Structures are given as structure tokens and as C-alpha cells.
Amino acid sequence: MSGGYGDIPWDDIYAAGEHRDNWDRAEPAPELIELIEARGWPHGARALDLGCGTGSDARYLADNGFAVTGVDISERAIREAVERTSADSSIEWVRADACDLPLDDASQDLVVDGACLHHFTREQWDDYAREVARVLVPRGVLFVRGVSVKHRSDNVLRREWIERVFGSGDFRVESMRDFTLIGAGDREAPGLRAILVRT
Ligand SMILES: C[S@@+](CC[C@H](N)C(=O)[O-])C[C@H]1O[C@@H](n2cnc3c(N)ncnc32)[C@H](O)[C@@H]1O
């Protein structure tokens, strides 16, 4: 497995510090805070941050009582996440592909994805959905957010793909809505967010 996926060289991007100019933020995503505050999970619920980057969302989840695993395909992202996290944190950081997770079946109550799935091709969406369905418990939640306009790659979070991939079978679409995604330096982009529930 290389540090890239498709044609995006994630390790090189992190090495060049491009994440700091584009998406990386010290604070957790406002829409994630909104979800956690609105919904409420029991203390100790298990959460997986897919494409965790340098880990702001994963740290927020851990600070709010979740047992957290942060997964990213980039070794450099994981290294930076570890550096930014206090040594006594229980977060488990794992370098892995979101479509091939070294996690047990039905081991997660919540999976969050901030701008990872939106880089995938349509074929990769099927692999991703299969793998997330495998690790989620029944009625577990997948919360995906990403840009809905073309950016780094040709792929974006598309309503049609969410409906097609998550609208039947292993998932149901609980909600899907447009929002403004905040990136590095408070840069804004049109985004789409969806709550998908494991059936
Ligand atoms: C735009 S960044 C977002 C990072 C983080 N979620 C955030 O909001 O700051 C996308 C992340 O997805 C990771 N990624 C891309 N493809 C992946 C894959 N197949 N499996 C796991 N992580 C992947 C990248 O390395 C990168 O850290």
C-alpha cells in the first residue's frame, strides 16, 4: 500500500505542508459537534474517524467520551496526529485504507468521515460502503461530509451516489443536506453532509 490512493499522493501533500493551506484545522468540524450534541451517544461508545488527517475530529470525539480509532492512509498524517495528541490519550491511530480496515466486524457505533470519501471514484464507493457496513453495529451511524463541487480530484460527494450506494441494502439515508464546509484559514466551500444508518 502506498501513501496515495488513486492518483493523490497523500504523503507528499502532507510532507509539503499543503494540508495546512487547504483543510487542516486545529478545531473539530462544527457539523460534527452539532451531530454529537444533538444525538448523544453513551460514554464509551466506539467511534472511527476515517481519513482522520491530523486528528482534530478524533480528539474531539475522545474528549467527549468515545473510544476512538483514527485511520488514515497517509503515514505522515498519522505521525502528525500522534504528535498533536497528548501522550495519555487513548486514541488508537492506524495507518490503513478505508476500504480495507484492520478492525473487527460490528466493532464501531459511529464512523465519521470528513472529506475522505469525496476523493473516491464511484467504484471505490462500493468498496468503502461494504467495509463501513462490516465494521458498524446494526443501527450504527456513518456521518459523511465533503465538498460538493470539483476541487483536488474529479470526485465529489454527490447526492445521486449517496442515494444509490447508501439508500438501500446495508444502509438507509437518514438525512442529507447542503452546508458550508470550513477549511484551513476559515476558507469556505459548498459541501454536502449525510447521516447514514446501518440497517
Ligand atoms: C481532505 S483530508 C481530510 C482530513 C481530516 N478528515 C480533516 O477533516 O482534517 C482527506 C484525508 O483522507 C485521507 N485518505 C485518502 N484516501 C484514503 C483512504 N483510502 N483511506 C484512508 N484515508 C484516506 C488522506 O490521507 C487525508 O488525510
Summarize the structure.
The chain has 199 residues and is of the alpha/beta class. The protein contains 7 helices and 9 strands; from the N terminus they run E-E-H-H-H-E-H-E-H-E-E-H-E-H-E-E.
Give the topology, please.
Elements: E1 4-5, E2 8-9, H1 10-15, H2 18-22, H3 30-39, E3 46-50, H4 56-63, E4 67-72, H5 75-83, E5 92-95, E6 108-114, H6 122-135, E7 136-147, H7 159-166, E8 171-182, E9 188-198
Parallel strand pairs: 3-4, 3-6, 4-5, 6-7
Antiparallel strand pairs: 1-2, 7-9, 8-9
S-adenosylmethionine binds next to strand 4.
Provide the descriptors you would attach to this structure in a database record.
199 residues, alpha/beta, Rossmann fold, 7-stranded mixed β-sheet, binds S-adenosylmethionine
Describe this structure in words.
The chain has helices spanning 10-15, 18-22, 30-39, 56-63, 75-83, 122-135, 159-166; strands at residues 4-5, 8-9, 46-50, 67-72, 92-95, 108-114, 136-147, 171-182, 188-198. The chain contains 7 helices and 9 strands. A hairpin with a 5-residue loop joins strand 8 (171-182) and strand 9 (188-198). It is globular. It has one domain (5-198): Rossmann fold (3-Layer(aba) Sandwich), CATH 3.40.50. It has a 7-stranded mixed β-sheet, sandwiched between helices. Strands 1-2 form a two-stranded antiparallel ribbon. Helices cover 30% and strands 31% of the residues. By secondary structure, it is of the alpha/beta class. Bound molecules: S-adenosylmethionine. Residues 5, 10, 23-24, 51-53, 71-74, 77, 97-99, 114-116, 119 line the site of S-adenosylmethionine.
